[in-house]
């Protein structure tokens, strides 16, 4: 358009400071006169600004301007401009089609209509120029009323087809609620499988027959990675090669998770002293045996090794004259044992006849089984080793139970006898004779304790005079190993044997302590 303006000068146009004439069709933006009619935009085309007799026509000038000024990266398109109106048509007062009207100085109307004001008087408004999209083939073609664009040579970009997404919802994004309510539907979480076999002694009895094939498989598994001189190691030392004792997956034995093969080694090899975990695990399964064998006439339960430790703590406090140590919390734990609130698979003492109590004689590193007969109010002691310098230590430990248990049992178990009299009378103690005895120097007292308890759980006493400790070591280890391995293989867990919550009686409030607030 600048080229058009230069080729069609008008006389009487204002002059610039350098002496050149300014075209009459360029509006003077310095004039701030407002437009009378705000709906119309005045234009320089209100009057003819070119001579039809001139050689350079409007079409020719615009094509020359496009050739000289369009950048090289743009390919020229074929543009056809409609011929301007003739002088005759303009003399009739007709306005060119598609050209808005414009009067000089109407800047406020331009601003109100959202049209940006040019910074120079030689610039034209964008609405008066053909859009550059008409000469840029890479952009969409915008056809103006005065411009006709032919589509020849114009390349259009093809819109790519979006790739269909394969949805794979993650488990964390899936709904926790079931949307399928059919007969086979279930929740999104996996259902925990309960192991059907309640304890390892369901079909394997201490009287026999024994599964020797199982014993061989267990012994072979136990020997894998074992040191050559494993018998020379101390009790707490590792008897396996480097990292050979660590289990890939912990074995679940109800109250304990076993992560090391040394635990089974101490249980199954000769001349190894059993610890509290070995005793508690086997007595736990014997307790489950009594709980689920409701047809048995011999009703019993067991306690853990911690029970005797709490009795020792209470006895030591009462033995000190003038001691100010409070053992109320420890005594509360003893009452929880009696009411069945302390152990897994516990049975309240008011529903059974006998209680198996493991006793550890710390001075002699010796295990003894004490059986409390609630009906007979008597304690039976099953000791696998009797000697002159040994019996006194065992007697001292048993006397602690005989003196303290009557008080707690009478407080928690209601009967027709006088509670005050029962608390003052200690239990009778009887040492059972004619039972199997271990050799001097052997460390098999723990195996004898477990065998005595299992024999008594059958309700027939101890019918043997000799006990093969090596066989029972392998038997207990193999049964526990097979039980944990089968449960792990099936992906099952044991049933919930947590004790019930104890119902606390409501606190009594003295009326004299009540305060009324108005």
Tally of separate helices: 13
Mean pLDDT: 74
Low-confidence stretches: 11-56, 70-74, 76-112, 132-145, 183-189
Q: Tell me the β content.
A: 5-15%
Identify the overall geometry: extended
Radius of gyration: 52 Å
Order of strands across the biggest sheet?
Answer: 6-7-8-9-10
SSE order, one letter for each helix or strand: HHEHHEEHEEHHEHHEEEHHEHHE
Q: How many strands, which pairing sense, and closed or not: the largest β-sheet?
A: 5 strands, mixed
The tally of beta strands, per DSSP, is 11
The amount of helix comes to 25-40%
**Strand pairing plus helix content: what structural class?**
alpha/beta
Distance between the termini: 93 Å
What does the model show?
Residues 257-456 form the Ubiquitin-like protease family profile domain. The protein is α/β, with parallel strands linked by helices and 518 residues long. It has helices at residues 2-7, 58-69, 87-91, 107-112, 212-223, 262-268, 276-292, 305-319, 328-339, 388-412, 419-424, 445-457, 469-489, and strands at residues 79-81, 147-149, 193-194, 246-252, 257-260, 300-302, 354-361, 366-373, 378-382, 428-431, 492-493. Strands 6-7-8-9-10 form a 5-stranded mixed β-sheet, with helices on both faces. The two termini are 93 Å apart.
Fill in the keyword field for this structure:
single chain, 518 residues, alpha/beta, five-stranded mixed beta sheet, two-stranded antiparallel sheet, 11 strands
């Amino acid at each position: 358009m600048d080229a058009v303006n230069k080729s069609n000068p008008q006389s009487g146009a204002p002059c610039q400071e350098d002496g050149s004439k300014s075209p009459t069709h360029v509006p003077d933006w310095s004039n701030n006169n407002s437009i009378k009619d705000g709906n119309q935009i005045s234009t320089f085309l209100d009057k003819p600004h070119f001579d039809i007799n001139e050689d350079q026509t409007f079409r020719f000038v615009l094509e020359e301007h496009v050739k000289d000024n369009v950048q090289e990266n743009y390919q020229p398109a074929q543009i056809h401009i409609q011929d301007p109106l003739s002088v005759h048509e303009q003399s009739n007062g007709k306005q060119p089609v598609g050209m808005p009207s414009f009067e000089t100085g109407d800047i406020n109307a331009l601003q109100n209509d959202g049209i940006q004001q040019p910074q120079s008087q030689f610039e034209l408004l964008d609405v008066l120029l053909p859009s550059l999209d008409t000469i840029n083939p890479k952009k969409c073609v915008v056809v103006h009323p005065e411009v006709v664009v032919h589509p020849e040579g114009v390349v259009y970009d093809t819109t790519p087809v979006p790739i269909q997404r394969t949805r794979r919802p993650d488990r964390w994004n899936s709904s926790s609620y079931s949307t399928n309510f059919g007969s086979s539907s279930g929740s999104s979480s996996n259902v925990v499988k309960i192991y059907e076999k309640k304890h390892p002694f369901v079909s394997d009895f201490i009287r026999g027959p024994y599964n020797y094939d199982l014993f061989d498989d267990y012994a072979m598994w136990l020997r894998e990675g074992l040191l050559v001189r494993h018998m020379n190691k101390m009790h707490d030392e590792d008897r396996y090669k480097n990292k050979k004792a660590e289990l890939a997956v912990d074995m679940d034995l109800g109250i304990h998770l076993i992560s090391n093969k040394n635990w089974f080694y101490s249980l199954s090899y000769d001349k190894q002293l059993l610890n509290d975990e070995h005793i508690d695990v086997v007595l736990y399964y014997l307790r489950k045996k009594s709980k689920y064998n409701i047809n048995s006439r011999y009703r019993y339960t067991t306690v853990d090794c911690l029970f005797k430790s709490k009795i020792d703590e209470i006895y030591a406090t009462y033995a000190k004259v003038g001691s100010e140590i409070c053992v109320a919390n420890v005594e509360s734990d003893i009452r929880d044992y009696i009411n069945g609130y302390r152990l897994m698979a516990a049975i309240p003492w008011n529903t059974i006849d006998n209680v198996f109590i493991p006793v550890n004689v710390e001075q002699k590193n010796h295990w003894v089984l004490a059986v409390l007969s609630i009906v007979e109010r008597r304690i039976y002691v099953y000791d696998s080793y009797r000697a002159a310098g040994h019996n006194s230590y065992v007697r001292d430990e048993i006397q602690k139970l005989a003196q303290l248990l009557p008080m707690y049992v009478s407080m928690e178990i209601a009967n027709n006898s006088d509670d005050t009299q029962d608390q003052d009378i200690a239990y009778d103690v009887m040492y059972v004779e004619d039972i199997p005895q271990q050799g001097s120097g052997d460390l098999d007292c723990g195996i004898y304790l477990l065998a005595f308890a299992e024999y008594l759980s059958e309700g027939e006493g101890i019918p043997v005079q000799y006990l093969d400790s090596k066989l029972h070591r392998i038997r207990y280890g193999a049964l526990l190993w097979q039980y944990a391995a089968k449960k792990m293989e099936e992906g099952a867990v044991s049933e919930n044997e947590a004790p019930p919550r104890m119902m606390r009686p409501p606190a009594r409030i003295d009326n004299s302590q009540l305060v009324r607030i108005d």
